[in-house]
Amino acid sequence: MNKVVRPNRRMLLSGALVGTVAALAGCSSTEEPSAANSASPEAPPTTPEAALERLLEGNQRWVKGEPQNPNRDPARRQALAQEQKPFAAVLSCIDSRVPPELIFDVGLGDLFATRTGAEVVSPVVTGSVEYGPLANGTPLIVVLGHQRCGAIKAAHAALSDGETLPGNLAEIVTALQPAYEQAAAAGGDDPVDAMVRAQAELTANDLRSNPDLAPLVAEQELAIVSAYYSLDTGAVEVLSGALS
Questions:
Q1: Are 155 and 180 in contact (CB under 8 A)?
Q2: Domain layout of the chain by residue ranges
Q3: Which CATH number is 2-240's, of 3.30.70.420, 3.90.1150.10, 3.40.1050.10, 3.40.630.30?
Q4: In a structure prediction context, what are the per-residue pLDDT tens digits for the chain, which is 244 residues long?
Q5: Read out DSSP for 68-123?
């Protein structure tokens, strides 16, 4: 299957790295397939379109207050003990109101979840996001910004007033300056919300231009989607990157 071959192709010249990364994830490519898929009510999606559809279907259940809470029982936990195969990677904020597994109504083994303040990335964060597509064949990355993001609000205030936030918070402000500038240039009644959306799109664009991920995007084996989560409604809005 393509999603098994793909990571080997991407890492053809560094087979040892594949083995090391797999070990860090608690997986073994030499083991027999586990019962993870049989414990799931549905087979995991294998294409970007199907993966995004699965997430948005789950989000609609969340919005309606009708979550199925799939893949969260002891049987699922046991089935995943030796092997995992998440169908999507989500880069979202640390905000306590934005847990990806709840928002998309998924469970154990469904997502690679990376969370940083305002989806700010660094080499280590980028490597964490890359892991899904490059070592696992994951067909979808979602960069998820959200309404009333505290990190964005603080950074916007600091950049507007020329202030420096304490500690390493200043690094987050620096990383968010491109989003601040893009939102300021666009104008609008809610510059903080505009900055939230700009940050999600800029981060997704950076990932799409990543030299290891870009070939997969070009071949439509991987989609990198920017999205926006409403705290008021619970709905996820796709901003860019969905394959037609």
A1: yes
A2: 2-240
A3: 3.40.1050.10
A4: 344 344 444 443 234 344 444 444 444 333 333 333 334 457 899 999 999 999 999 999 999 999 999 999 999 999 999 999 999 999 999 999 999 999 999 999 999 999 999 999 999 999 999 999 999 999 999 999 999 999 999 999 999 998 888 999 999 999 999 999 999 999 889 999 999 999 999 999 999 999 999 999 999 999 999 999 999 999 999 999 998 6
A5: ---S-SHHHHHHTSS----SEEEEE---TT--HHHHTT--TTTEEEEE-GGG---H
